[in-house]
Structures are given as structure tokens and as C-alpha cells.
Fold:
Amino acid sequence: MFILHATMEDNLAIATASQASFPWLSLIILLPIAGAMVMQFFKVDEKNNKNIHRNIAISFLLADFLLIIFVFVRLFNNQSSQLQLIERISWLPFIGLEWSLGADGLSAPLVVLSGLITLLAAMTSWKIHNKPRLYFSLLLIQAAAQALVFLSQDFLLFFLAWELELVPVYLLIAIWGGKRRLYAATKFILYTALASLLILISGLALALSGPEFTLNLTELTTRSPSGTFALLCYLGFLVGFGVKLPIFPLHTWLPDAHGEANAPVSMLLAGILLKMGGYALLRFNVQMFPETHVKLAPALIIIGIVNIIYGALNAFAQDNVKRRIACSSVSHMGFVLLGIGAINALGFSGAMLQMISHGLIAAAMFFITGSFYERTNTLSIPNMGGLAKVLPITFALFLISSLASLALPGMSGFISEITIFLGITSQDGFTSIFRSITILIAAIGLVLTPIYLLSMCRRVFFGPRIPALALVKEMNPRELTIGLSLLVPTLIIGFWPKIATNLFETSTNALASVIQTHTTLALLNSTYIG
Structure:
């Protein structure tokens, strides 16, 4: 334990010494907020600039995404597991709040994913004419809050960002959603807000547990608490972050939210918000409570299996396209729990890759669904049929995204899921029976996925032709660009996974080495269950 603490303190000293000379991370966060402020000075002119707010939002989000690419391609060292580009400014010293930012392999790829999907969501919002200034302002604020969640290195700052991003999503669903939008939005905010209380209580308890009160995440990591206190904090974080992931049975807000949200908001929900839960589990539960995580890893794997099977079976019961995709997200995020529960480098790497892969694939599926909804005005599977002949490009993109979702070899989903399976099978801390049962049951989910996805493709695109849908128009170049921007990366990662894993592999290996120390100690003390 002394060795672990000394190592973490050395890491803290190295990280502090590598503070950025220019506030690049702050610029990534503040640029979308600046866009929202600029937008307030422009009024809609129905003749000349009726789309001015949309154009401003896209311009600022494009600039922000290019800035993200520059920072993490040119300035970020992916061979280091330490925090980089650190910025620390005392903001509210009387409560210990700092504007503390930093990036490592756990946060960098998710910031890139967030920037891409938010930009594409704004481009998808082409026909928003109801309160466009408010709508695009909320998108920009959401972009800033998402980046702040992934880059915060102060617990209170992280918590404020976690809460801030809930507000735009609630309003985007409540104002621009479907017929039951208020119900869905209220359910979303109740689930997530109540879960946030557990996050706040657990975080403050951890901050008060040491000799000195601190909110700095790196300093909190050095404490590595154990016993009942660690267990309670761990469970508080697990439930709080598990609602966002989501884990069964805390997932019921998700199908309702997706069912009522418009396509751009569904892209944000599936592509980014769910990933915040997985990221936070790695950042808090695994990194701060390694000993407790080792003991509870089998339980996480069991929950992950339940997610996979339940989400897949529930998808069969859905006759609404978006609700079926939403249930598939519950199933796919179960693989993230499997990877986190594998407690080794392969498992953690697979969990990160699954979050990136699912973010791209799910965003693509919701975008394409929104595209044919604009043309058919229905999401009911029984009310659609024969669309392949009139929408061949839409069908091709939807089929590719479905194949990617069912983990077809050559797609990113296959690489992430096979890496997670390898992580579980290579974990000697589990008994052979536990590993075999885990792989067998999880494999059932892999069998169910192509059934419910391909049957949906068949019914929507090759079912009995609906005469009223015979004259719908095909995707335009803008929509095709958005679809390809999401699907091409899944193919690239599928054939060349290093382009993604290079960003986080060093960090997941370092995290696994810390976990391995506690796994060895647990085995020696006969406290590790498997």
C-alpha cells in the first residue's frame, strides 16, 4: 500500500509539473459558450437570415471540433498515462472549488467523440424553426458541459458539469420532443437528479475522509480507502453513475427519452451521455476504490450480463424503431460493465473501445431513423414497409449501422466486444466455471442482437409496401455526409483499431497495473470472490 501511495504522489508531482502554457482545454469548453452568447445578438429575419442561429451554432461547433482535433493530435502525448495540459485556477477558495482541468487517455477519446457527435447533431437540426435561438443555444451549452465532465479534475467542478448537462437535455426533450415529451423529460430529470445526490454525498464523504479536505481528483485517488466506508462510497457512485450508463433496473428512463426526443437529441443521448456513466465508473469507482472494485468485479459482470440479455429481449417487444434501438443500447452498454468488471488491461481497453464504437453506431442509427421519420412521419414498424426501393441509400446506411451494431467482423463493434471477451477469459482471478458461464450467457446476447436488428430491417425496408410511402424522397447530400461521418470511422476502427486504442491504451494499462496489485493482495488474503 505504501508503494502504491508513493507512486500516486510521484504521478501527482509529474502531472503538476506538466501544466499547459496555454489554456487549450478551457478554450475547448468556453468556445461553445461564446457561440451561445454571440447568438443572442442576432434576431431571426424570415427573408434574409432565418437560419442565422443554426449557422452560428454549426460554425462554433466546427471550430471547437477542429480545436479538439488539434489539441489531441498535436499537443497530447498518448504514450503517457499522466494528466496533461493541466490548468488549475482557484475559483471559489472558500469552498475549495478550483477550475481544474486535465486530460489523459480516459478522457481524450471521449472529448473527441463528444465534439464530433455534437457537431453532427447540430447539422442534423436543419429544420428546427420553433424557437431556433433557444434550441441552438442549448446545443452549444450542452457541448461545453459534456467537455467539462470529461476534463474536470476537481470533484465539485465535475459535479457542477454533470448537473449542468442535464438541463439542456431536459429542455430539448420537453420543448422539441414528441407527444409524451413532458412525461419523458420529467422521468429523465427525476432519475438523473436523484442519482446525482448519491454522487454528491459519496464525493464529499471521500473529500472529507483524509487528513485534509480536498476536491482534487488526483489527490483523492491517492487515498485508496478500504472497508465499509469504501464500500458505501463505491455503491453510491455505482448507482449514481449507473443511472446514466444505464444499468438494470435503473434504465427505464432511456426508452421513453429516446422515444420522444428528436433525432439530434437522441444522437446526444446515445452517443455521449451514456458514455459519461462508463467514463465516471472508470474515473471514480475503479481508480479511487481499486480494492473494493476487485471484490465487487464479479457482481459488475453479473449486472452486465443482465443488461445484455434483458436489453436484447426487451428490444423484441418494441414496435417503435427508436425504442427498439434504445433497448439495444441498454444491451450494448452491458458490455462496458463486462469490460470494467474484467479488471485487466484488455477488459478496460475493450470497455473504452465499446463506448467509442457504440457512440458512433448508435448516433448513426438514430440519425438515419430521424431521416426516414421526416419522410414517413411514423416510427411504427408495422406502419412501414417496402422502403428499400424508394430509399436505397437510407436502407444501405441503416443496414451498415445495424451490421456494425451486431458486431460484424470488420466493424468497430466486433473489435470492442471480442476484446472484452478476451479480457474476461484471461482473468485468472475468476474461476474457470465463472468465466465459462459469463462468456456463454453473454454470447446469447450476441445471438439475439442480429435477430431483433435484422428483423427490424426486414420489416421496415422489405415488408409489405405501404402505398402512401411510395413517393418519399431520398437522402440529400447533407444527410449523406452526416451518415458517412459516423459510419466511416466504425469501418476504420474495425480494420485499424490502433487509431482509437492509441489514445487510451497507455492509461488503461496503467489503471490495470494498479488493479493488478490489489488483485494479487486479495488473492493472497483469500478475499477475492470469483
